[in-house]
């Protein structure tokens, strides 16, 4: 009887693991020849797999990263895997507003098109501060991408139809924004969750502002992915999470599928400002669809990054 229970437990664990790791794959085969794609943090994880997928479709792919050595290594790998030599790296640090402004100045001087902007880079639940004294999660995950997108918006409008894809996470549902303390930096997971909720509001307000101007925006939850986000933590925590990720998380290639889907599919344009998961529109908590909060966050973000 003991052996029977052991077998049943192992079978149940296997089935749960398979269920947790199920993901749809993007089946759209559209080519992107002549299109320019910019991906933040494209030197590893979901970003790198997205870069490979879009380079395979013929796009000119630019990786915006702060670590030059890792980025150049990723560029070589992406070129080898995609057989597309039109892949390059440009330096940018999302934790530094001056770096973002310099990047955008260089980009606008050198690049005549921007068809797809993928705001992929992100910081996990860490309690740290950016060079501009913003909490690291809010500063990088939201404010950095907010400034980047706004500074590149003229080029996006010139390249229409164009798209902005913001990577978020379903953990948004565990927090709400506090406009008295947008720089909240006490509990790591809550800090991260607030930044991911900000990504959703940002997407919705961007879609509203650019409505009818040929630019569409989408928020994507890629699933729980076996990426290298644990590098910010202790060795023991990394070891523990590697076991958990192996059992329940999906591969980076699988995690990139919804991003690719929103980058190429014509179907998604009917859901401008929408939230996507598993290559299809997904439901949001009611408070995450509050247009008033989205507008208020946009205005607050303009002041914080000195765009207003």
Assembly state (oligomeric): single chain
Helix-strand makeup class: alpha/beta
| CATH homologous superfamily annotation | NAD(P)-binding Rossmann-like Domain
Q: Mean pLDDT across all residues, rounded?
A: 89
**CATH fold-level topology:** Rossmann fold
* CATH class label: Alpha Beta
Helicity, in percent? 40-55%
Which descriptor suits the 3D outline? Answer: globular
Give the terminus-to-terminus CA distance. Answer: 70 Å
Tell me the domain tally.
1
Strands across the major sheet, in which order? 3-2-1-4-5-6-7-8
Rg, nearest Å = 19 Å
Query: What CATH architecture do you see?
Result: 3-Layer(aba) Sandwich
Return residue spans where pLDDT drops below 50 for at least 5 consecutive residues.
13-21
- How many individual β-strands? 8
Strand content: 5-15%
Supply the number of helical segments. 10
SSE inventory with pairings:
Elements lengths: L1 H19 L15 E5 L4 H12 L3 E6 L2 H15 L4 E5 L5 H14 L5 E4 L16 H23 L3 E6 L20 H22 L5 E7 L13 H14 L3 H4 L1 H8 L10 E3 L2 E2 L9 H14 L4
Parallel strand pairs: 1-2, 1-4, 2-3, 4-5, 5-6, 6-7
Antiparallel strand pairs: 7-8
Family: Belongs to the short-chain dehydrogenases/reductases (SDR) family.
Keywords: Oxidoreductase, Signal
GO molecular function: oxidoreductase activity
Which descriptors would you attach to this protein?
308 residues; alpha/beta; Rossmann fold; eight-stranded mixed β-sheet; 47% helix; signal; oxidoreductase; oxidoreductase activity; NAD(P)-bd_dom_sf
Nutshell version of this structure?
By secondary structure, this protein is α/β, with parallel strands linked by helices. 47% of the residues lie in helices and 12% in strands.
